[in-house]
Write a structure and sequence with these properties.
183 residues, mainly alpha, 9 helices, 3 domains
């Protein structure tokens, strides 16, 4: 961020100086008149190229001479800010997508374990085994159905308890499973 500020300042310095029709030598003379005794055209050139660091007091005086402020001169363009924000959002989206993919992979593995468990339960014909099979059946949905449902839940900003499954969720999951089976 600090390097961005310096690069933005240097770019804006050139832009404002050129816009005012001021030479590097004239800017150096004005800096000398304001107490920066060793300022030269070469100092201005190196500052504009980003070849030398700029001190805060120096930046403030340069901004005054150029009719601006340090804040305005260090701020990136709207495009730069938009690109920076887009890059940050992209990174967060990729990270979230990877977490979702991992969660769906975990869910798919649990479905496999559940099917294996139900298969083992099929050897038993007692009420407890039947109850266990029925309890699992209500929670087993294809991963694609769960992904569709999760996208719907994520888009529902009015949802009071996003971490809790409610009856309507199971109804919607069953609808999505039926639709997927009907394809």
């Amino acid at each position: 961020m600090e390097r961005d500020d310096e690069a933005n300042f240097a770019r804006k310095m050139v832009e404002l100086r050129d816009g005012a029709g001021m030479s590097q030598s004239e800017l150096a003379r004005q800096m000398i008149a304001r107490g920066f005794e060793t300022y030269s055209q070469m100092t201005v050139s190196r500052t504009e190229k980003g070849d030398r660091p700029i001190r805060l007091g120096e930046a403030r005086v340069l901004a005054e001479i150029l009719g601006s402020s340090v804040d305005e001169m260090t701020r990136g363009t709207d495009l730069e800010e938009s690109l920076r924000m887009a890059d940050k959002i992209r990174g967060n989206l990729v990270s979230s997508m990877m977490r979702v993919a991992g969660d769906l992979a975990d869910y798919t593995e649990l479905l496999h374990w559940s099917a294996e468990f139900r298969s083992r339960l099929s050897r038993y014909d007692d009420a407890a085994a039947q109850e266990a099979r029925e309890a699992l059946a209500g929670y087993e949905f294809p991963a694609s159905v769960v992904a569709t449902w999760a996208a719907e839940v994520a888009g529902d900003w009015t949802r009071d308890a996003p971490e809790a499954l409610v009856w309507t969720d199971f109804t919607r999951l069953a609808e999505l499973r039926e639709a997927a089976d009907g394809k």
